[in-house]
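A student in our group prepared the protein record below, which I am reviewing. I have pasted the whole thing underneath without changing anything:
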Amino acid sequence: MLRTIMILVFTCILTWSCSENVNKEIDINDYYETQGVITKVNPAIVKGQRHLSSYYFTYIDTDSTMKHGTEKYIETRMRVGKGSPVTIMIHKEDSLDMFIDRLGVFYENSWSILQKNLEKTSD
């Protein structure tokens, strides 16, 4: 009985210590925001009680070039699909560190450019 309890405790500790740290602390002042558009959504996968989806997006960087990004396997309650406008937060020093912040159009000029590009790529 004691052996079974010890194995159970060890397994719980091992599982807890190896789990991914999803809730990392961020300083929002280290990021800048830009307009983006969702270009693809992979269907959710179910991991326990969590529904995880992958989002692919295009955004306009500070030098007015279009770039692409991905946020993989995130749990979200956002109802977005291809063509949904989003705000992308990009780290000022590491442009590979980015995430989708919120839904909506916040930069009209960038949004019209992104819409035209999405229409071209859809044809």
About this structure: The mean pLDDT is 78. The helical segments are 2-18, 108-122. The CA atoms of residues 33 and 89 lie 5 Å apart. The first helix runs from residue 2 to 18.
